[in-house]
Every structure is written in C-alpha cells, then in structure tokens.
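Input sequence (59 aa), recorded before submission:
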Amino acid sequence: MKELLQKIQACTTMPQLDSLRLELVQAGKESEESFRTLQQAFIKKKNQLQRVPLKDRTW
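Predicted structure, token format:
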C-alpha cells in the first residue's frame, strides 16, 4: 500500500493519476481500511492537480 501512496504522490499530471485507478481498486479490495486510505490520497492529489492554472497545464 505504501508503494501505491508513493505512486499517487509522484503523479504530476491527471493522465498519470488516472492510469492508477485500476491498480488502486484492485489493491483496495483487500480491506476497507486500505481502500479508504488510497481513496483519500487519490482525491487529495486530484484536487491538487485541478488547482493548477489552465495556462500551466500540459496535459
């Protein structure tokens, strides 16, 4: 799970983050606690990336 959290934090674009969705869901099936943790990290990173001004986005 720590690997996935690091992958989420390392994402710099939305497509990179979106490519992790399937992997995160599969890892989240193990336990509800890990799912919630991964989901919170994903949402946090998604919100950070959405705050990047449109003129600075390259994706």
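Checked by second reader. The chain has four helices and no strands.
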